[in-house]
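Hey Z.,

So I finally got round to the protoporphyrin IX containing FE thing we talked about over coffee. Here's the setup:
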Amino acid sequence: MHEPFRLYSTEIDRDPFPAYKTLRDDFPCYWSEDAQTWVLTRYKDVQAAAMDWETFSSTQGNLVDEIPGRAGGTLGSIDPPRHDRLRALAQAAFAKKNLEHLAAPAARSAARAVMAVKTRDSFDFVSEVSSVVTVETLFEMLGLAPRDPSEVRAQVVLSVSSDKANKGRNDAQNAAFASLTAYIADEVEKRRKMPADDLITRLAEAEIDGDKLSDREVILTTSMFVVAGVESLSSFMTILAHNLASHPEARRRVANDLSLLPQAIEESLRFNTSAQRFKRVLTRDLTLHGQVMKAGDKVILAYGAANRDERKFPDAEVYDLDRKPRNHLGFGAGKHFCIGNALARLITQTTMTKFLTEIPDFSLATDSFDWVPSSNFRSPVTLPLRRG
Ligand code: HEM
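And the result:
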């Protein structure tokens, strides 16, 4: 039979939305032979599964093709009660330094990046704007020495890519993540010897009721801040720029009235966010829409599909600046709701304010560009834009 949804295909990397619609309408609880997993796509089902961590467990990791050695060591790959303690410790480390303090470094970084492209007729938004601001700001927050943003993004993207031929991961992808964690492990070791005023030190020292993070947890949690931060955030900002470039009327309205920017951000998180799909594993048998799923089966929660469900959002396939998309699943739901959501909104808002102020008129320089091969994320490799 022709599979209506083939996870390991360039079509799904580029535009999963037609396949999602078929699944939502005709196969709401779909067994993918190709990926050996169930796929949930309706809003009600995805949200309920995200809330029910006792049935939909994260302990085997939330990446569809999990990185070896990660499961069980960091937030997205553990369940309560350990999850709640680690989350509280990570939250404490985040909260100590008020997020607002990051607005100034993000604004400085955005100003440098935007001014560098402002006078050019065309430029690549990924390597010249979104990666630059994301890597510079997150590295400053974590207390890591500056590194070449394009190199960091390339390493992070490779870490979370999948190999279509293998229907899983390959050695190069595993090596990219191993080299990132080795670098972070060195940095953690340095902070243990000489504490600094940065997030890694706060993670290493955070303590609640005598409980502290183990070295493995500090290293993996920091690595995930780098991976989730750099990949999800730079890709999301790029997708927002793509949405504005391909919806000129919306772009003109936002550029003329920047108070509409938060709405453009929320609608983009709903319409075509970067974080498309995450994995859970069933802890018990469960029947849904007549399908019998077994304990131990993998299930994909397709947040990106749920966000286009007409049953929840009227005219869901329309990018509507005036929509107030309450309870979209762009940051997930339940226990694993994105810990970086406020930070992501802040950095996006700061960067795009500068970008739209300096470059209010822009459009796609080409509509054929590559998308990262990933079973989780929807991420443009480049986004060539032209002024005007
Ligand atoms: C716009 C950018 C971002 C998007 C769209 C996004 C999306 C998401 C989503 C959908 C989840 C839920 C995963 C699941 O259900 O298994 C999640 C979790 C997470 N995100 Fe984000 N994220 C973004 C930015 C960030 C940033 C900037 C950071 C950190 C610096 C971050 C760190 C995390 C972590 C650590 C988790 C796991 C939380 C837990 O399991 O308790 N994210 N993110």
